[in-house]
Amino acid sequence: FHNFDTVVEKGVDMEDFYLPSLFQNDDYIKRSYFVDGEKYDLLSLNAACTDHDLTGLIIWPISEYLAWFVARKVNLSEKSCIELGAGSGLPGIVASKKAKYVVLTDGNELVLSLLERNLALNRGDHKQEVRRVCWGERSSVEGFTDYFDCVLGADVVAWPNSIEPLLQTVTAILATDGAFYCGFVVRALSTERLFFQKAQEFGFVVIEHDDTFLRTSLFSEDNDATPNHKVDNIPASIRCTTQKLRVLELRFRDPLSVKRPLSFISDHPEDNKW
Question: Which residues of the chain have pLDDT under 50?
Fold first, then answer.
């Protein structure tokens, strides 16, 4: 066809000429990330995609921050762990060094493909797998045969209408004595307030962790609080970011009476705006 008018006149469906690959950037670069002395090789993009569903194709400072928290503060020995909205998967891959079973999840097929490649670059001795999980979707969680001791999520609270589906999924898969560690960045105060409100409604208590888990390495070994100007290999993306990076820990307020979701967003597609 010589021009768009000719296409219209002939009644051609433009979807026949739509190639999604033309709009997808998979020009990944392999980088090495050092987290608390361990090296991890990951593929990612240099710049974020405009599609909010593909923002996980780059590694954000909050992902590195959560990965350091997992490495230094979370006891995963003989425990199971799942990362939601994993993107490139750094926190979950760090967790796989210690946990007996780790699942990296996302809802986008392109991101899942990247997760598979990154997991292959960092295979450990324990069981690891990649699975599609969409928040608020019943079928995504029904395939799991047991609850998870630890749930991870980096920058998963970005849009107000994603909060309830996210918490539905966490409530459905988290063990009664487990913890959801959320790498949190405030982009809108209204979204932050809504998250804390919904977390309370879902029966969670929220504990905020300060950044002392990073600062402990910035002092000399004799604990005299003398600054060590060599600093260690904490990445500049964490030290120099203008964003306030936070880790929130969510636990069930009453582990003996956890109310698992009886209804999911996916059960009511006519009301689903996510």
Answer: 1-2, 4, 7-8, 14, 17-22, 50-51, 217-231
- Please tell me the pTM assigned to this model: 0.83
Sign of the torsion formed by the C-alpha atoms of 216, 209, 192 and 183: positive
177 neighbors 206 (Cβ within 8 angstroms): no
Nearest to 234 by CA among 98, 86, 65: 65
Two tokens at 225? Answer: 């609080």
> Do the Cβ atoms of 250 and 180 come closer than 8 Å?
yes
